[in-house]
Structure formats: C-alpha cells, structure tokens
Amino acid sequence: MTLKNFDQKLTQYANLLVNVGVHVQKHQKILLSIAVDQQLLAHKLVDAAYAAGADKVVIKWQDNYVLKQFLNSTTDEMLTKIPSYIKDEADTLMNEHYSRITILSEAPDSLSGVDAKRLAKYQQALSTAQQTITEATINNRISWLVAGAANRVWAKELFPDESEEEAYDHLWEAIFTTSRITDDPIKTWQAHINELSKRADWLNSLHLDKLHYQAKTADITIGLAKDHIWEAAGSTDTQGNYFVPNIPTEEVFTAPNLHDINGEITSTKPLSYQGNVLTKIHLVFKDGQIIDASAEQGNEVLQELIKTDAGSRSLGEVALVPYDSPISNSEIIFQNTLYDENASNHLAIGAGYPFNVKNGTELSKEKLHQLGVNDSQVHVDFMVGSADMNIDGITQNGSIIPIFRNGNWAE
Amino acid sequence: MTLKNFDQKLTQYANLLVNVGVHVQKHQKILLSIAVDQQLLAHKLVDAAYAAGADKVVIKWQDNYVLKQFLNSTTDEMLTKIPSYIKDEADTLMNEHYSRITILSEAPDSLSGVDAKRLAKYQQALSTAQQTITEATINNRISWLVAGAANRVWAKELFPDESEEEAYDHLWEAIFTTSRITDDPIKTWQAHINELSKRADWLNSLHLDKLHYQAKTADITIGLAKDHIWEAAGSTDTQGNYFVPNIPTEEVFTAPNLHDINGEITSTKPLSYQGNVLTKIHLVFKDGQIIDASAEQGNEVLQELIKTDAGSRSLGEVALVPYDSPISNSEIIFQNTLYDENASNHLAIGAGYPFNVKNGTELSKEKLHQLGVNDSQVHVDFMVGSADMNIDGITQNGSIIPIFRNGNWAE
C-alpha cells in the first residue's frame, strides 16, 4: 500500500461507518461480518465502536475460498444440514438488538466454478436458519450498514492493466472517493444526507401511482405499493436510532407493487451475486410476476435465484439514481452491487422493505402483501440505468410528471 | 517471506498435521481454530482435509487484538455473559464428533495489559460454556491436534536483533525443523513415534509408585496415579482413530496422583499463558495440594489460575523430555508451551487425562479422583527441566530406579 495517508483515511472511513453508518450508541452491541484479509479495517472498526461506547463486537470472519472448498467437496446431505446453533445464534443476536456491519470485499467471481444448484441449496438452507437476521434487518428492528473494502484480487480484476499494488491502491482510492472521505467526512455526509432527503420529500409530495421507464433497454410500467414512502440515505430503527444503511448511497427508493408490474427490462451493468457475475439480465413481467428471465452470463444462477420462493418472481425495490452521479462519473464498474447500484437506477428481485409503506413495520405480512410489498428470502438488486433513460411518474388521476430525462433527474 | 521453498514446506506441514496429527478419515468433520492472519496455512489445511475425505471444516478465526479490546472495554456484566448459542455450538460439534485442529501463533504477550481478574472471569465463563469441548478432548472422544505457526510480532519478540522479515523466516524455519519437516515428513514421523513409544513401554514395565525430582530448582516427590499408563506421541480416540495430539512432541507423560505430591519446584522457562508471560513459577505442595505459589513475572495471573476451581490447586500431568532434545538444542525459548514443554520436563496444573489410567475414559469422575487423576476446568503446562536434573523412580516396594541423570534419560 503506497496510497498517501492510507492509514489516516482508513481510520476516517472506519469512524464514518461506525458513527454515521450504523451510528453506534452507548451500550450498543455489534455483529461485524468482514473478510479474513481485512484485519486492519476490522481493528479500526472495533476501536471506533468501543470508542463510541459499544459493549461488544462479535466478528464473523468470512473467507470465500474456504466456503468454495466446502461447497465443492461436501456431501449433498451435509450441504444443506445447517446445525441448530446457527439458528440459535441468529435468534439470540437479533433478540438482543445487535447492530450489523457488513463489509464487502470479496472478488466478484470468488465463488465461480461452484455448481449453481449446490450454491443455491446451501444459501437457501442458511437463509432459512438465519431468517430472523433478514427479518430484523428488513424491518429496521436493528440498525445496519453495508460498506466495502478493497481486496487485491478484486482490484486486479477491475484494473487488469495495472500492477497488483497499483490496482489495490486504485480501488481503495475509488472507495474513499465514492464514500466521500473528505477532510471532514462526517460534515460532508450531513450535507449529502440533506440533499438526498429533499429528493425523497419531493417524490413523496407527488403521490405517484406508477412509474413508466423508457430506454433502449426498457419499456416497463412499475406500480408503486399503496401508501408507499420514498426513502433516502438514512432510516430510523425501532429503537429510534437514525442510521445510514449503505455507504456510499446515492439512491432514493421505495417499494413497487408486486401485483402491478408489466413490460420488460434489461440490466445495464454486470451484477456480482454470490461470487458469480451475471450480465444482461432480461426480465419480462406480467401483472407483477416474472414470466420470462434470461442472462447472457450467469443464466443458471439467475434461474436458481428466481426459483427460490414465491417472492423471488417479483420485485421488492425501485430506486432512482441519476446517471450523472459521483460513482457513475468515476467510470468504474465495481462489479459490486453496493457501488454499482449507487451509480444507476436499479430494481431488486425479492423482498420489499416494510418501512417503504406507511406504518409498514407494524403491519402483518398479509396486509403488506395486499399493499403490494413483496416478501421473499432474497433481495437482489440489479442495475438498469442508462444515459437515454426517461422515467415518467403517473398519478392516480392519470397525469404524467417527468421524473427522469436522459438518465438524470428531470428537475 | 524469503524462506527457500516456503510454500512447499507449508504444504508438507499442513499435510502432516492433517494426515498424521489429527489423522483425518473419510467423512470426518473438523473444527479448526486459527488466527486471522494465518489465511494461507488455513487454506492449505482445508485443502488437505478435503483431500483426505473430510465432509466439513468449520473455522473459528481467532484475533487476540479484538479479544483484548473487548476485555478492556466491556461492562462487568457483558464480560461473563456468554450467549447460549456458544454452549449449543460446543455441544453440537462434540456430539457430532468434530475433530479439533488448533493452530497457535499469537505473540506470547498479546493479551498483556488486560486486567488479570477480568481475563480469568471471562475465561472461566467461556470454559464453562464450552465444557463439552474440554471433556471430549481430555477423554479422547474426538481426535485433536495442537500445532504452531509463525507470526511477525511473536518472531520479532523472539529474535529482536533481526529485521521483521528475517525474524519471521527464522521462526518459520524453527517450526519446520522442530516439527521434523524433512523430505518425507510422514516417514520421519513414523520412526519418531516408534522411538517415543519404546520409552513409554519401558516406563510402563517399571510399575512405578512415585518420582523423586532433584535439581537446584526442585526437590519434590510426585506420586503417580494408581493404574497409571505412560503415553507418548499418539493416542487412540473412542472411534478407534490413532492421532498425534501435539506436533512437535518429544514427551512421555502420565497422570500424577493428586493426593500424593510433596515438596517444591520452580519453573525453568517462561510460560506464555493467555497472552501473559509467567516466569519462575514457584510451587510448594503438601499431600497433593499447592500450599504456596508465586511467580516472578505474571504473579497475579498465576494466583487467578490456581483459584479457578478445586482441581487448579493440584497437578494433572507429569511429562518427561530429555534436556538434550531437538527443540532444546535449537536453543530457542519459543515462549509458547507447545514448543517449550517439548524441550523440557514439565508438569501441568489442573486436569489430568483419564486415558492416562487403565480404562480411564470409561471410569466415573469419583473413581478417577480415587485413583488420583485430577479434574479441573484448566490444564496449564509449565516447564521444570534443567541440565542438572536427576529423577528417580520409586517402586511400590521402595526400590529406586534411575530415570533421568543430568537432564537426560538415565539409559
């Protein structure tokens, strides 16, 4: 690492994640998921968390090489046999309101070569065991954060013409820049959060019924959930703690109506999903359901994904990001959803966020379904934005309001 | 790393640990405890385990910096509140006969600065939660292995006059040499195991009642448990799998009689225990019980250790290692028990191994106690060997048989 002031910037970054991202409070407990090769960042996060008054940081160290060897070597029976303590652990941590910090750094294709069906079976079994974590997260019963970190393999894949050291520096620099690590990151973030919140307020004031997307890669009408709320930047968990769940974040997003999606759309950036890269995901919808799906690369993984459960055949999120955004302007395709989704309009296959409808976190699953909020074990964002994309908002009485023109906010 | 053939030697080392150490069988499951900065060795162990037919390797990544920050920062309540899933996890893994591989690499003083009482409280709470692991290990209900790996901080502490890279290479080289990583380590180990087993057979043929240690640092008589068995190199677990629980190993050991230890002894090498260094541990025994204890360095940690439970005031192991052994000849004080105990006669405070008496793993705790086998949550070896040490064996009828003369085997 030869990046100027790297150690200082990494400290600022860790402080931002802890104090703005998950917004650690006195006596908070934290579940940190981070790769084994991110020891320095992990230590800085631990230090920042205890400095902010945390009581405990539990680390779940990740290593996709070890996971890959397991998936490739174990028996069919062991593959889906998740020991009972995994569920007990998930239940206990969520019951005690552990906040989650998840640091993504694995290379986009770190699980390539694993049989897609075996991977899906394992993931489904694990998701079922850890369902309380997904539910607590999606309902904001805990504060949570997803952020990134550079890894040499990932860096070299993004910048193949550079030396490994150069590529690694380049990726860290891109992460610091897109995460707005300025001289005073916390002040910068307060201004940024205000800016995004104004966009959300404007969209909420329009009371839209649906959005109509038009581009070379899209002709689709996406109904919005009844009583939907556009959110941006931050959320408030059920303990009243305001947190910013994604760093970086450039999006304004809400819940689509799972009963009312019609047309077709193609993804415009590669998606890294479970260690595989999916390109040109093409989905055709009728009355909210995917009736046809294909991908140029990673098609098998896509087919397994949409077969997960009833909800994996519809959408759970619609998010607006101007084509002319800092991440997009970096012209880097990170092949990591956290970054790429914040460079582009995107949608998510699978679960919707209950907090994206009025009083949503207090409503039953049936009521949420009725309002159009999707339920699923999965939530997989894919990028659909492009420079030629126009989006119209359509209100209950049929009037049309320009939302996006040529890939950017219409006003 | 500039050590010649490092990658090849590390692969041989991993293969030795898996195929001779824990002796992985088809469909075996493995619990690997290893530090976060040992990713390369971890991957090689995982590869070797699956190549040997293992079904699953669960890794518990260790990081003493993270542990230290927790111990220094958390509340008294959280310190000893071990969540229920930790016990559930321990019970499940032992119930399913997971074999254990533990790789030690943390610097000897990696937890120094932590309040000794807080550390002891935490360790005791954790040991209680994970008691099934200790019991399964000590009773050979599973196969298990403790081995080492070099760490830059540890290396620099051992070789302060060398550069960090040189010290790191030096420590790896010492680990490979003392672990007998030759051109054919598996063949070399078979010969070594035979050699040690012959020593154990000789001691078993003597049917000794007690040992009398005499040196500048020792004048103590240690009774041996009734029906004791001298073991060396390997053990057989209750599934019938022969394994070698320590690599390296130079010792021949058995269970002392907890009712019959009298005299005093001082440790001759520094002991690294829970991230603290203890020197010149001086213990006085009467009728098997420690009646006085002190240490020149780490005295507080020693006092907490012997207060753990009833069994932590007596001994659980007596082990014979010639002063003229490969580790001793390396003239390195590793400040790590795994190596230093195999360079020196040693004793252990705390639990004895039931397999060190006839049919011991099938006997009740009461019966074991009656035979003299100690029971405790702790088992802490400390080194007592020296160049001037003489040890006499005393038989039931009072005859004296020279066992050690001037620090080495008498014959």
TrEMBL record, chains A, B:
One of its GO terms (biological process) is proteolysis. InterPro entries: M29_Exopeptidase, M29_N-terminal, Peptidase_M29. Coiled coil: none annotated. Keywords: Aminopeptidase, Hydrolase, Metal-binding, Metalloprotease, Protease. Its cofactor is Zn(2+); Mg(2+); Co(2+). GO terms for molecular function: aminopeptidase activity; metal ion binding; metallopeptidase activity. It comes from the Bacteria. PANTHER family: AMINOPEPTIDASE (PTHR34448), AMINOPEPTIDASE AMPS (PTHR34448:SF3). Belongs to the peptidase M29 family. This is Aminopeptidase.
